[in-house]
DUF1223 domain-containing protein (Leptospira ognonensis), 104 residues
Amino acid sequence: METSSGSGKKYSGSSRSKFLKGSCQLLEIYTSEGCSPCPPADAWISSLKNSEDLWKKVALLSFHVDYWDFTRWKDKFAHKTHGARQRYYANLWHSSTVYTPGIV
C-alpha cells in the first residue's frame, strides 16, 4: 500500500510506518447545537483540550452543520459550507447519508 505525504512523495512498507510515526492525524468533527446527541460529543472533544497529544499527534477541527437548523434551535456556529464538506466526504465513500455527531 502506498501513501502520499501531501508533498508528492510516496511511501510504502516500512518507510510508510516511519512517515506515519511522526505525523499528526487530523480529525474533523461534524456537530450541531440542534442535534440532541451532539452536546456529549462536543464535551468529549472539549475534554481533549489539555491533552499532551493535541497538536502533536492529533489536530481537531469542529464543523457545525446547518442541516439541523430546521428545528427550533438554530446553531449560531453553523455554516452551509460545513454540511457541504461533510456531504463531499460521504460522496467519496459512496454513502447517501450524513449524520451528527460525525467524525472524519
In short: The beta strands are 2-4, 10-12, 25-31, 58-64, 102-103. The longest helix spans residues 80-92. Confidence is low (pLDDT under 50) at residues 1-5.
